[in-house]
Amino acid sequence: MLTERQRLILNAIVDDYIRSAEPVGSRSISKKSGVGYSPATIRNEMADLEELGFLEQPHTSAGRIPSAKGYRYYVDHLVRIGEVDEEDLRCVRSFFARKMTRMEQIIQHAAMILASLTNYTSIVLGPEVFSNSLKAFQLVPLNDQSAVAIIVTNTGHVENRTISIPPGFDINELEKVVAILNAKLVGVPLHRLQTKLYTEVSEELNRYVSHCEEIIDTLAQALEQRTEHRAFTSGTSNMLTQPEFRDVNKVKSILEWLDETPALVRSFSPKQEGIQVRIGQENADEALQNCSLITATYVVDGTTIGTIGLLGPMRMDYGKAITLMDILSKDLAAVLAKWYN
Amino acid sequence: MLTERQRLILNAIVDDYIRSAEPVGSRSISKKSGVGYSPATIRNEMADLEELGFLEQPHTSAGRIPSAKGYRYYVDHLVRIGEVDEEDLRCVRSFFARKMTRMEQIIQHAAMILASLTNYTSIVLGPEVFSNSLKAFQLVPLNDQSAVAIIVTNTGHVENRTISIPPGFDINELEKVVAILNAKLVGVPLHRLQTKLYTEVSEELNRYVSHCEEIIDTLAQALEQRTEHRAFTSGTSNMLTQPEFRDVNKVKSILEWLDETPALVRSFSPKQEGIQVRIGQENADEALQNCSLITATYVVDGTTIGTIGLLGPMRMDYGKAITLMDILSKDLAAVLAKWYN
DNA sequence: GTTAGCACTCGACGTCGGTGAGTGCTAACC
DNA sequence: GGTTAGCACTCACCGACGTCGAGTGCTAAC
């Protein structure tokens, strides 16, 4: 619905504002190479764009800044994706060339790189293992009264819980328990473990092992405490370098939000595949009204298991951010796929 | 070396300044109950205290604020420890009454409570497992090419690595490998595992299993990547509520420091037992010159395995902070001791 | 449709005097 | 000799005021 010239001007304004963080005037747009119009013409178009809701004016005698709607249009239609800085690319590649032995570590480091290359704040949600299936189960006794229960999932994720052994339970029978549990439960999705424990495993176990009700109860209880999503953030302090957050009160609510894992998880959870950009008020969360959040999902063994996010001011370098996240999430998927096979 | 009256006045000034964050004048001290001197007398003493280096004056016509030396004296000689708010105590107790099944979780939550009760920033260094000994070893194959190696330590800590299985290695022999490793390595401290692998285990393994050099190499390599100290912070945003950090630039370096795990670990590492207070420049780290850091160690099974820290401005409520950390670290030790037995 | 010209707006910045909290010093008091 | 009242002095803070300049909207000419 915008004319070609309006798109050109909107694009120029957003680009300029992303760079400078200061209201853009008609003169500076006019001077740009590629724009062959005088300031007056630009002004007319800017007035129109403001009327249409794409631009805003902080006060009468200032230049224009993009509105949320303006950014949305920019992201949807104007932004150039795919142009990468050579240096950045080399940085990413050399990172993925390194050898790592823990999935969480890989993902965390990827997020750190993202934060340092973009100068925004990155957020990783730990792997969602809820829909994984059980690969192996182990019980390691620590002493007479407690043991460590270990669960390995099909994606190579390891969970552990310390449980207390019911008094009267013969510790030598643990092996039997483990064998039966493994026989019955391998391949079962984690979220069905509890039910299975009580239905199918219970009677089987009763046949061979005494005092087993208590241990089943204990295990079920330990499983109850589903691993809360762990969230890792990096580059939090980058938020403070943004001129729009020079005022402490503006950053405070954002940092509080970053501190608070549940809010973070909630905001991420309607996870759609691929890369998503939420601008300003599109974020449900009060604290993020002045921010933009870009999210990308990552995949192991065919299922989406987690999300990487990048948080910045609304005046974010969307082109660079989206491009980098695209590269990163694809490389990540490739590495994880190859690794897991 | 200070007279009783000087101590009284210094104490009053520090208390006042901790509360108000504003330079303290002679008049307000004089009005305090328990101080029976006129402003003029107080002024004389204040001038002396300043000459001795315990106080500072932001500018001529302002009141006095404590210097780092003043805080140090306050912490060493004046601060009242042990007075707890009933509400806080109830909060701590109710926390420890909850049932938890993961050690890390307990410690993290303890730190979160500390942060929310004090309104400062708390830092937890993940358990130092380097000196733990091996309790059990497991290998869980994920597919033909990779497996998860799991290590359980005597304190119930679980470590895991994904390793790739050398081509040509018979996957059915993994069990044998595990059995031999367990027979040979249980009880060995983690930091000696690598050496032991090559010396004692190697030849034994050679006798029963073919292609075992590669797997030993892989394992040794995985162990090489010693788990970096994980650090968890909570209450980061509390830093922003402190009036001394209303200026973004002042907080920035601190948040950067908090972001950067290695610096954090370094600063914590000369860990002495018990509670320690480092004020301002006593912190080696540049970023913390305007902060105070209180650290407390926690203990499982007789050995110190980690540290909890509390970071605030120099103008910190030392009494409350130290008291709470004392209670918390003791309760924590009690719970962990009972839990592990 | 485009552009030059011009009056107008309004935040940023520097200056300036008034205000008040707090000091140091001196001299009087107990 | 220690304590205190009195007083002149200092200096950050604050609101008022004027200047400056970037940027606008509008009009008229091209």
What is the structure about, briefly put?
Chains A, B: It comes from Thermobacillus xylanilyticus. Chain A folds into three domains: 4-78, Orthogonal Bundle (Arc Repressor Mutant, subunit A); 86-126 and 230-340, GAF domain (Beta-Lactamase, 2-Layer Sandwich), CATH 3.30.450; 132-223, Heat-inducible transcription repressor hrca homolog, domain 3 (Enolase-like, domain 1).
Structure report:
- Two copies of one chain form a homodimer.
- Chain A is α+β, with helices and mostly antiparallel strands and 341 residues long.
- Chain A folds into three domains: 4-78, Winged helix-like DNA-binding domain superfamily/Winged helix DNA-binding domain (Arc Repressor Mutant, subunit A, Orthogonal Bundle), CATH 1.10.10; 86-126 and 230-340, Beta-Lactamase (2-Layer Sandwich), CATH 3.30.450; 132-223, Enolase-like, domain 1 (2-Layer Sandwich).
- Chain A contains twelve helices and ten strands.
- Chain A has helices at residues 4-20, 26-31, 39-51, 68-78, 86-97, 103-118, 174-185, 193-208, 212-224, 248-259, 261-268, 318-340, and strands at 55-56, 65-66, 121-125, 134-141, 146-153, 158-164, 231-234, 276-279, 291-300, 303-313.
- In chain A, the strands form three sheets. In chain A, strands 7-3-10-9-8 form a five-stranded antiparallel beta sheet, with helices on both faces. A three-stranded antiparallel beta sheet of chain A has the order 4-5-6.
- In chain A, a hairpin with a 2-residue loop joins strand 9 and strand 10 (303-313).
- The model of chain A has no long low-confidence stretch (mean pLDDT 88).
- Chain A binds chain B through residues 100-103, 135-136, 138, 140, 142-146, 148, 150, 152, 154, 156, 158, 160-163, 221-222, 225, 234-237, 240-241, 245-248, 251-252, 255-256, 258-259, 339-341, and chain B through 100-103, 135-136, 138, 140, 142-146, 148, 150, 152, 154, 156, 158, 160-163, 221-222, 225, 234-237, 240-241, 245-248, 251-252, 255-256, 258-259, 339-341.
- The structure holds a DNA duplex (30 and 30 nucleotides).
- Chains A, B: Keywords: Repressor, Stress response, Transcription, Transcription regulation.
- Chains A, B: It holds the Pfam family WHD_HrcA.
- Chains A, B: This is Heat-inducible transcription repressor HrcA.
- Chains A, B: Residues 1-72 form the Winged helix-turn-helix transcription repressor HrcA DNA-binding domain.
- Chains A, B: Negative regulator of class I heat shock genes (grpE-dnaK-dnaJ and groELS operons). Prevents heat-shock induction of these operons.
